[in-house]
Amino acid sequence: MKTEKTNIKAALTIATAALLGGNTVTHAETVSSNEDSNWEFDSAFLFYSEADRVSASEVILNAKKIFADDEILNLKLTIDALTGASANGAVAQPRVQTFTRPSGNGQYDIAPGDTPLDDTFHDTRVQLNGQWTQAVADNLTASGGVHISKEYDYLSLGVNGNVAIDFDRKNSTISLGFSHFQDTFTPEGGIPKPFASMLIGDSSAPTWDDEFAETRLGSEDDKTTTDLLLGFTQVINRRMITQFNYSYSMVDGYLTDPFKILSVVDDNGVAQDYVYESRPDSRAKQSIYAQSLYHFDTNVFDVSYRYMWDDWQITSHTIDSRFRIPLGDNFGRESYIQPHFRFYQQSAADFYQPFILNSEPLPAFASADYRIGEMTAFTIGLKYGMLVNHGHDLSFRLEYYRQTPTDAGFDEPGVLKKVDLYPTIDAVIAQVSYSF
Amino acid sequence: MNTVHKIKLALIVPLITIASGCTSLGVEPWERDLLAKDAMSLTSSPIDSALDDHIYFSKEASSGGKGFGGGGCGCN
After folding, report:
1. Of the candidates B40, B55, B70, which has its C-beta nearest A48's C-beta?
2. B48: chain A residues, CB-CB within 8 Å
3. Of A83, A129, A134, A215, whose CA is between 20 and 30 Å from A208?
4. How many Å apart are CA A66 and CA A64, to the nearest integer?
5. How many Cβ atoms are within 10 Å of A404's Cβ, its own excluded?
6. Which domain holds residue A361?
């Protein structure tokens, strides 16, 4: 029973990791012939909440079936709902500011000193994934999958493929993956013209709709994302396994956020205008990733590092680590706790700027979206898992995530010295998972 | 033995050790007891990874690395 369970779990890891695009097909060797062809399910509910900003709830149901010849079918349903407020990109001011909603219908006011947040964000997303994984020859595993994700204003279609070759008694694995996404964005209010001034005034006036339409390019735009992933996995010894990946990602099309604006300020830092942001229409990202797991006598240490760089001049470092500590049967059941620590640091995109000075010419591209600005972030968390009846797994995870945007060296004229241009964001992540 | 030789030796010995170590990397099939555990798989919790990837993809400028970092939602 124990062995069978391990096999099922290993298979689940492969299939779902393949769904995620991971190349952990490596672990195919741990799956032996399994006569039990019942479905296995993994489920989770996650709640994510930022102080005063966005809240999101997400449900995942993953169903997996292993067929007689170890072919694995994996189906995953993800539903999430998002509500709350999101920074619109404008800077805080010592006076009340008024902004127009992205739809063009109505306005909202921001109090003096507050970071402008648009509180109209709400969306529901449904995502379906299917993945098929099987051995195609000795030491050669292949996997292919499809992806569809639909939101009120967004449609994403994707395919992926993965091959993994094992050698040296399956101690080494080389894998090659490919994925392609085709996304269509139909934002409420349409696609704003780059650097068009946000229309502010009486949205019930008879001329409003025509004037608002003047700031728009059209109703929808699209983008494609193509990823290539080359991986190498090596078993070091009985206690240690390592993985190295190189990935290349090419994104083409509409990469601007239609809901984000920049403040245009005078030499005293006072906002004179708000203009829609503009980003380049392509981005090439590359990353290297290394991961290592080490099994101590009972505990397992899992640590990874990623270095990412792109042609927007963003670079980032990510360190992620988990330490799994079995608790034995201390609470009457087999259980474990797992502390988690993640550190993240990124530099700003070359076109990021927190505001535009009206005394200077407009740049080719500009965005005040803090997510592409200079930033440090960390996550600390704890997971508690236990084996319940019939070998089912129940786990709880609680994490704290803090983002600290930092000044990449921009001068702050006049009144901008008195407001917080780089507010920190605190979030709590809570999750319950059940596998059956 | 002069200093240069000592330095050479100091450099070469670890290299040989590493090189010989490389040839003995890996385990025999019957030594996979620990590696076969769930906790030792490279993605020990795919559900957690999927949820985390979605959060960090939405909130940061980086994605992927471990797996594909592609599109999939309008959250970024």
Report:
1. B55
2. 44, 383, 397, 431, 433
3. A83
4. 7
5. 15
6. 2-435
Of B29, B39, B53, the CB nearest to A20: B53
Closest CA to A301 of A293, A311, A289: A293
The total number of structural domains that make up chain A? 1
Distance CA A84, CA A121 (A): 6
Q: Cβ(A422)–Cβ(A405) under 8 Å?
A: yes
pLDDT of A32 reads: 42
**pLDDT tens, residue by residue, B40-53:** 999 989 999 999 99
Judged by CB atoms closer than 8 Å, whether chains meet at A318 and B61 is answered as no
Tell me how close the Cα of B3 comes to any Cα of chain A, in angstroms: 35
Strands A107-110 and A97-100, by their bridges, are: antiparallel
Tell me, what CATH number does A28's domain have?
2.40.160.40
- Facing residue for B70 by CB, picked from A17, A181, A234: A181
CA atoms A14, A19, A23, A25: torsion sign: positive
Note whether B64 contacts A185, CB cutoff 8 Å.
no
Task: State which residues of chain A have pLDDT below 70.
Answer: 1-37, 330-332
pLDDT (0 to 100) of residue A30? 41
HSE-CB at A417 with a 13 A cutoff on CA atoms is 5
A295 vs B68, more confident: A295
CA distances from A51 to A33, A121, A286 (A): 49, 15, 32
